[in-house]
Amino acid sequence: MFAMLLMSWELIPRTSAFGRSMSMSHGSSEQVRAVALEKYVQPALRAGKTQFAVAVKDLIQDLVSQGFPPGNTPQVCTALRKKEFLREHGIEIEGVDGPPSKMSTTVVVRYRVADSGARTAIKKNPLAGEPVEPEQEDPSDRAFRLTEKLRGLLKEELAEYGGGEAFLRWIRSEEENAA
Question: What residues are paired with 53 via a beta bridge?
Fold first, then answer.
């Protein structure tokens, strides 16, 4: 019974309050990311900036002018931090300024261009001056990017213990206490 009800629910076409279809592939979060890409990310990348920011308040104003519901601030904040969006456009989050919840119109998401090994940059077509599809990352670049991230994590962890020698002393003292 429940399975039949669920199947029938999935077949019902749903529309938003603005008469637009609400499918999973073209939902409101996709709209948020599309507007952010068009109005903020691509212009910054084309200008050669390595760091830029998106103010949620400004993005919501852009979205509302396109019929987006103004009360969906948490959805906007979450959509801007989606890992797939960041990876597709070769950017990383440098920081999120705002209240502890990170779900407010006062939030500002600060981005930076990812390392050259991780970046699938938007390149311009030399003939037409238009953006070209990002290149795929080859396996050796991916391996280098991932090992660099691991090295960075290890470096931070070692710094917390006062360096490599202090870390080894701490490990050895744990082994002696366990024996």
Answer: 110
